[in-house]
Each structure stands twice: as C-alpha cells, then as structure tokens.
C-alpha cells in the first residue's frame, strides 16, 4: 500500500511539472508573437527611391500673338536683292512651342525618415522642332497612410531648363531675274519659322501625387506638376505616371 501511494505521488508530481512546462512554453511563444513588428513598413526611413516616368505636358497660353514689330509695308529692302526679315514672333509660348508634348524623366530621392526627402529630377520634352529639358533639385514630403500601401506626397523643385523653340513670322521678298527686270518681277509673302532656343532659363516646379507600393521595393506612382519659367506664357503643366523602386 505504501508503494502504491509513493508511486501515485511521483506520477502526480511528474504530471504537474509537465503541465507547468507546457504552460511556460506557450506563454513565451505568445509573448514572442506579440513582440513581432507589424507588417506596415512599405515606406521606411533611410531609403533611396528611384522613379522612372512618362507623361504629357500642355502649355498655359493660347499659342497666338499679334506682336509684330514691323508691318508688311514698313520693310525697306535693297533693290534687286532677296529679303528675309523677322517681323515678330507668332506664338506666346517660347519653350514647348506647341499645344502639348510627350515627356519622360527620372527622379531619385533619399528619405531621411518616412516623411521627407531631398532629391534630383531630370526630364526631356518633345518640343516643336527641338527637344527641351530640365534638371532640378527637389524637396519631397510624403505621408504613408497607416499600414497601407498608399502614400500621398507633395514636392517642390528649383533648377534650369534649356532647349525648346519659338516661332517667328518672317517677311520674304524673292526677286526673279536680274537688273531692272528683278525690280519688276518679284514675289512677297510671310512665312512662319521655328527657331531653336539657345539660352538656359531658371525653372521652378511644384506638384503632388500618390504612390502605391506593390511590394516593399516596387510601386506605382501618378502625379501632376506645374512648371514655372521666366514668363507666364512659357509655364506648362505635366501629368506623370510611372514605376518606383525603393532600396
């Protein structure tokens, strides 16, 4: 009887120890699960972002001008010689020089935390008869929405723009023959000609958009930028869509 009681006591002690061990392990496992970080780090601090985008630009003016410096009858041409005379610009737009144009570019940014970054942007625009382009330093502010994949953002930039063209109306007088015959036999007409820009201009830019992360390293973006040049007639809007890579 004593042996039976001793055996029963040992078995009860063993069961109590085993149950206590299982409870301790389960508690530790729950504690570890609770301490695991939430899966909401699609947007992180100290990350490099690269955006590759295509877009469409449209100008902010009517595209027409009546600023002719000389009239048809005020041009004094040498007798017997053909004459081509600039009599004024045709379009107010002296950069893109058309109603709209396709564009493409790239942005690279470094986020010091989840919310702001410094970066660089470069792009080209298919301006009339001559490619236009710009390079800018940028500051970006973004706001990731909770643990979601969405992050609206705004940015501003300052840099240089070059290239493009403007259209000028020329007075043309073409003489036929030579001598006295050339003075009586000639044609006169006006013709528009696109002139490539040679100067570089200061340009500012500001805009806003939305980024959607597919994974932590790849996403999609869409935004709108307003670009300001040296004259309001040269300003243009730019809608951009592309992909983002984050590292």
Oligomeric nature of the chains? single chain
Structural class: alpha+beta
CATH architecture annotation of the largest domain: Beta Barrel
| Overall geometric form | rod-shaped
> Looking across the biggest beta sheet, what order are the strands in?
1-3-4-5-6-9-10-11
Order of helices and strands: HEEEEEEEHEEEE
Q: What name does CATH use for the topology of the largest domain?
A: Porin
Low-pLDDT runs: 1-8, 22-26, 65-75
Total of domains: 2
What integer is the average pLDDT?
A: 78
Taken as a percent bin, the fraction of beta residues is over 45%
Description:
This protein has helices at 2-35, 180-184; strands spanning 47-59, 83-89, 100-111, 116-125, 132-142, 150-163, 165-175, 186-196, 200-213, 218-228, 236-246. Helix content is 16%, strand content 51%. Strand 10 and strand 11 form a beta hairpin. The termini are far apart.
Question: What's the structural blueprint in terms of helices and strands?
Answer:
Layout (H helix, E strand, L loop, with lengths): L1 H34 L11 E13 L23 E7 L10 E12 L4 E10 L6 E11 L7 E14 L1 E11 L4 H5 L1 E11 L3 E14 L4 E11 L7 E11 L1
Antiparallel strand pairs: 1-3, 1-11, 2-7, 3-4, 4-5, 5-6, 6-9, 7-8, 9-10, 10-11
